[in-house]
Amino acid sequence: MEPQAKAGAAVAGIRTHFPRIARLRLIAACPGLDGILQETELRMLFDWILLQLYGRTHTSSFGDLMQWTIEHGEGESLQLMSEVTRDAVDRLPAPALQVIDGCEGRVVAAVIIDQALSETGRNIAPELNQKYV
Questions:
Q1: What value does the mean pLDDT take over residues 65-91?
Q2: Confidence class of residue 132 from pLDDT cuts 50, 70 and 90?
Q3: CA torsion angle for 115, 105, 15, 83 (degrees, to 10)?
Q4: Which has the closest alpha carbon to 87: 61, 48, 117?
Q5: Rounded to whole angstroms, how far apart are CA atoms 26 and 106?
C-alpha cells in the first residue's frame, strides 16, 4: 500500500474508532453524559479537529501533518494539539457542555479527548507512528 493510501486508511480508522473511545472515557469521567453525548457528535468533532490541525499547520494531508510534527518537534506539536482540543470541547452540544461544566470541567474534557485521539492513533496506525518518528 502506498504511503498516501496508508495515511488515508489511518485517518479513516481513527475517525471510526475515536468516537467510541472518547465517548466511553468522557462518560466515565462524567456519567451524566450517557444518553446526551453521541458518537456521531464526536465523529464530527474529529473532523473539525483534523481541519483545524491542517489549517493551523498549513498542511493539506495527514502525511504532511505528520511531517509537520517531526519538523516542529514534540513540544510545539503537543501545544498545538492541546489548543485545538480545548477549542474543540466548546463545539460540543450545549447539553453536553452543561454536564461537563457541572462535572469535571472543560479542561479535563479536552485532556480526555486528546488522550482518546492519541490512543486511537497508536492502536489503529502503529506503522505510521514508526514511519514518522
A1: 93
A2: very low
A3: -70
A4: 48
A5: 11
Q: Quick one: pLDDT band at residue 1, thresholds 50, 70, 90?
A: low
Cα separation, 35 vs 25, in Å, equals 14
Cell of residue 97, nine digits: 457542555
CB of 103 closer than 8 Å to CB of 29: yes
Condensed to tens digits (0 to 9), the pLDDT of residues 44-66 reads: 999 999 999 999 999 998 889 98
